[in-house]
Design a protein that fits this description.
This protein is of the alpha+beta class. It contains 14 helices and nine strands. β3 and β4 form a beta hairpin. The protein is globular, with a radius of gyration of 22 Å. The termini are far apart.
């Protein structure tokens, strides 16, 4: 039977795609293992976990609506159907099965929660096969082979609906329920390096507001990576590259006050990619889709009026861990972006640091920022 299955895989188009995907999964697994070993500093220290929700200084938009934030998190340890049932119970929703690998939990009060195996071909096969009454032998064999590889290497992803920032406790409640049922994160294997993403809505969509947030993030990005226990010198490309020094110098200059069109063009000139810790392409696509698509024509870019903040460390199931820890660090970005004097001072200090011989690599900007933040907490 094993011989027949392999023969079917080799002779079918689905099998060829499946074999290619399995090789990619193996490579991804090795990359995750390598990256996972980078997630702790050499002394093994971790940032102090936050057990309460911190809110930014601005929680409403200029249109007097509550700002919302979407959260996405990866984990292992459960099947998609199990995870969906846990989410349904936690949010009092109704489960809709798309396929064996995709489920939607509908709620009346806050929108849809999605649980899916984060592997595109497997999801496509699952949808196609869900629409058929009976699969051919080759189709079944191809799906089974890819499913087996994915179960070992590809995480499940929980995508929450946009929630008011003060309601992030709902998402943490779901994470706690998943952890209680056996969901695990990065810390449980050298093969695991799972991600966490925040998609916070902006308070306003004008160029000045967006520029302030970009400046604040650029000044703090090394500190944020250090807080997440990621050694930035190792260029953790599995998730996202930091903004380059040349781009940072441009946007933190005191005279930088671009129009929206110039802001987008400058960003695209230096960052024509989704591979940034603060991915601005969804926001800029929402504001000017044609301008973005002329440079980055990627169907994975989903226009929305939010930042796309990507973190490399989901630690579901680790005692004391919660999304509040990473969220509280994002709130530091929010605080800086909404304090003109503090932002101008830190931009000026960072420009001096980058202007040092060898671009400041002989001194620790992370340490300088940490000390500055301690001294300038509002």
């Amino acid at each position: 039977m094993r011989h027949l299955a392999l023969l079917a895989l080799r002779r079918s188009r689905a099998g060829v795609k499946c074999l290619v995907q399995l090789l990619l999964l193996i490579n991804e697994g090795l990359s995750r293992a390598e990256s996972s070993l980078m997630l702790c500093e050499p002394n093994g220290e971790r940032m102090e976990p936050a057990d309460t929700l911190t809110l930014p200084p601005v929680v409403e938009t200029t249109e007097n609506a509550l700002r919302r934030v979407g959260v996405e998190i990866e984990f292992m340890g459960l099947e998609a159907q199990q995870a969906a049932a846990i989410v349904r119970a936690a949010v009092d929703g109704r489960t809709v099965r798309i396929s064996d690998y995709e489920f939607v939990v509908e709620t009346a009060d806050c929108g849809d929660w999605k649980v899916e195996r984060d592997q595109q071909l497997l999801k496509e096969m699952g949808r196609q096969h869900s629409s058929k009454e009976q699969l051919t032998f080759m189709e079944s064999a191809a799906e089974a082979a890819l499913r087996a590889g994915s179960r070992a290497l590809v995480p499940l992803e929980l995508v929450g609906p946009p929630l008011p920032m003060a309601a992030l406790e709902k998402f943490q409640k779901v994470v706690d329920a998943l952890a209680g049922a056996g969901a695990i994160g990065t810390q449980d294997s050298v093969f695991y390096a799972f991600g966490l993403q925040f998609n916070p809505e902006l308070p306003a969509l004008d160029a000045a507001t967006i520029t302030r947030y970009l400046q604040a993030f650029c000044c703090l990005q090394d500190w944020l990576f250090d807080r997440a226990n990621v050694d930035t010198s190792r260029q953790l490309t599995l998730y996202a590259d930091p903004f380059a020094s040349a781009y940072i110098r441009k946007i933190i200059a005191p005279q930088y006050a671009p129009s929206l069109e110039t802001l987008i063009d400058d960003y695209l000139a230096d960052n024509p990619t989704r591979n940034r810790a603060l991915d601005m392409l969804p926001l800029f696509s929402h504001l000017d889709a044609d301008r973005v698509q002329r440079v980055v024509d990627d169907p994975r870019v989903k226009p929305r009026p939010t930042f796309h903040y990507r973190l490399p460390n989901s630690e579901v199931g680790r005692t004391g861990w919660s999304i509040y820890t990473a969220w509280s660090d994002w709130v530091v970005v929010e605080e800086l972006a909404n304090s003109d004097d503090r932002l101008a001072e830190l931009c000026e200090r960072y420009a001096r640091h980058l202007g040092q011989p060898l671009g400041g690599i002989l001194s620790s900007w992370q340490k300088d920022v940490a000390e500055w933040l301690t001294a300038h907490r509002e």
